């Protein structure tokens, strides 16, 4: 039995199956989106259009993806309204000239049997611990022979925790912009 186990490990090592591999985020098949309450009664949705990232994938791991990191260009914020996007890039919110990137780096752990990104999230010069439940699919081989993996990660942050405190009180009560921001990343990554 011991000989069989050693043989299996040796075969996996030689074929590369047991080795961790790097997968780069495919920006053409990835969305980094968010939503936040507006005027108490509705939500504004948006996305960031410029980002990069990579995953460490280990086919022998229970989580499949073992680590991830990403960098978002804050100036690429896009809510579909140019005037609002300019306001978000300015001093009241992201201050993109001073804080050009939003970053995440962390690992994937199992929480109650389900994979969760656990790591450091930095926005507006503030770094906080964050967790984001993640659904991972793949890997598969695409029609061009490339190996791909996909994931969907969701979390909620309080923007005030990151120094994004601008707001206006409403006459009827409440505030113009909600504090809680829902983040959703739908991504594909390609094996390097």
Compact overview of the structure:
The protein is mostly beta strands and 192 residues long. It has one domain (20-191): Lipid/polyisoprenoid-binding, YceI-like (Lipocalin). 11% of the residues lie in helices and 53% in strands.
Description:
With 192 residues, the chain is mostly beta strands. It has one domain: Beta Barrel (Lipocalin), CATH 2.40.128.110. Helix content is 11%, strand content 53%. The protein is built from two helices and eleven strands. The protein has helices spanning 2-15, 82-89, and strands at 21-25, 31-38, 42-48, 51-57, 65-73, 77-78, 101-111, 114-123, 126-141, 147-158, 177-191. An eight-stranded antiparallel β-barrel has the order 1-4-5-7-8-9-10-11. A hairpin with a 5-residue loop joins strand 9 and strand 10 (147-158). The chain is elongated and about 60 Å long.
CATH superfamily: Lipid/polyisoprenoid-binding, YceI-like
The helical percent reads: 10-25%
Average pLDDT number: 91
Helical element count?
2
Report the strand count.
11
β-strand percent reads: over 45%
Outline: elongated
Alpha-beta content class: mainly beta
Oligomer: single chain
Topology:
Layout lengths: L1 H14 L5 E5 L5 E8 L3 E7 L2 E7 L7 E9 L3 E2 L3 H8 L11 E11 L2 E10 L2 E16 L5 E12 L18 E15 L1
Antiparallel strand pairs: 1-4, 1-11, 2-3, 2-11, 3-6, 4-5, 5-7, 7-8, 8-9, 9-10, 10-11
């Amino acid at each position: 039995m011991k000989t069989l186990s050693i043989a299996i490990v040796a075969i996996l090592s030689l074929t590369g199956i047991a080795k961790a591999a790097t997968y780069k985020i495919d920006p053409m098949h990835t969305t980094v989106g968010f939503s936040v309450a507006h005027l108490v009664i509705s939500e504004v949705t948006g996305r960031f259009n410029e980002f990069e990232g990579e995953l460490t994938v280990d086919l022998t791991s229970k989580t499949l993806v073992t680590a991830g990191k990403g960098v978002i260009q804050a100036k690429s914020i896009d809510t579909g309204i140019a005037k609002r996007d300019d306001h978000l890039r300015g001093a009241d919110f992201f201050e993109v000239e001073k804080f050009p990137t939003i970053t995440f780096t962390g690992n994937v752990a199992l929480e109650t049997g389900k994979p969760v990104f656990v790591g450091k999230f930095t926005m507006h010069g503030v770094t906080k611990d964050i967790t984001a439940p993640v659904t991972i699919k793949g890997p598969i081989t695409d029609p061009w022979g490339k190996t791909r993996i996909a994931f969907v990660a969701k979390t909620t942050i309080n923007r005030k925790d990151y120094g994004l405190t601008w707001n206006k009180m409403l006459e009827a009560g409440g505030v113009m912009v909600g504090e809680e921001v829902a983040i959703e990343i739908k991504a594909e990554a390609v094996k390097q």
